Amino acid sequence: MALVTILECHDLRLGFAGVKAIDGVSFSVGRRELFAIIGPNGAGKTSIFNVLSGVYRPQSGRVVFDGTDIAGKRPHAIAAQGMARTFQNVELFANLTVLDNLMLGRHNHIRYGPLSAIAWLGRARREELASRAAIETIVDFLELEQWRRLPVGLLPYGVQKRVELGRALAMEPKLLLLDEPVGGMNREETEDMARFILDIRDELDIPILLVEHDMGLVMDLADRVLVVDFGRPIATGAPAEIQHDPDVIRAYLGEVQPT
Ligand SMILES: Nc1ncnc2c1ncn2[C@@H]1O[C@H](COP(=O)(O)OP(=O)(O)OP(=O)(O)O)[C@@H](O)[C@H]1O
């Protein structure tokens, strides 16, 4: 029977020289869910992403992804299992074209060896063509046609963020982690990105875990939200629920000082 959740985190803990970056965080993401993690600056959101994607090893706790415990595995092994991520700052090859950057997301799907690649034989040719076709579908989906042969470094910032999203999609992930997907974007770019994020969940059926500072976006898009503060989970629930949670309001606005 298929599991209801794609990701389960149990009691994650991670500290840096006295700072508790993650202090007992547990949550799960459903197979059709758009789940967001929010919290003030330094609350531990990026640290959680880094543990999930294998950049940091948690000091304790379990991360079960698609039925397997992945805590402490290397980033490439976790990516190969089907977890793709984007980064706060665009991490693309600026001199390569949009198409070439997208192709880099396919390397987990290309299994031919160097000999058949040199000879451009059977399997190599078939896999290359299949990857090219998959990339063209992503170009269409993310409306990147007009930029496809341009070096990424020449493109507007909002489009670069979209290419990064495309590279993650090229991996055909089982779960997509988006780290501040609209950070630094103007309103129009943000609206475009919000539409693509929803389409990924609804049309491509890929569950999404999102870290984002733009509260409006999170409230509009997320099915459920986890709020963290000083590494600790302070609330989990639907956007409308957590918006009125006194602990959440306190975390964002600070303690009200008596006058
Ligand atoms: N590599 C590191 N070395 C030392 N301390 C770190 C490291 N990474 C994170 N921290 C600390 O852990 C805490 C959580 O940081 P983290 O970057 O996860 O927060 P965040 O919620 O993502 O913040 P922001 O919203 O500003 O991106 C902070 O106190 C931070 O200074």
UniProtKB/TrEMBL annotation:
The keyword ATP-binding applies. GO terms for cellular component: plasma membrane. The keyword Signal does not apply. Residues 7-255 form the ABC transporter domain. Transmembrane segments: none annotated. Pfam families: ABC_tran (PF00005), BCA_ABC_TP_C (PF12399). One of its GO terms (molecular function) is ATP hydrolysis activity. InterPro entries: AAA+_ATPase (IPR003593), ABC_AA/LPS_Transport (IPR051120), ABC_transporter-like_ATP-bd (IPR003439), BCA_ABC_TP_C (IPR032823), P-loop_NTPase (IPR027417). Keywords: ATP-binding, Nucleotide-binding, Transport. PROSITE patterns: ABC_TRANSPORTER_2. PANTHER family: ABC TRANSPORTER ATP-BINDING PROTEIN, CONSERVED COMPONENT OF ABC TRANSPORTER FOR NATURAL AMINO ACIDS-RELATED. This is ABC transporter ATP-binding protein. It comes from Phytohabitans rumicis.
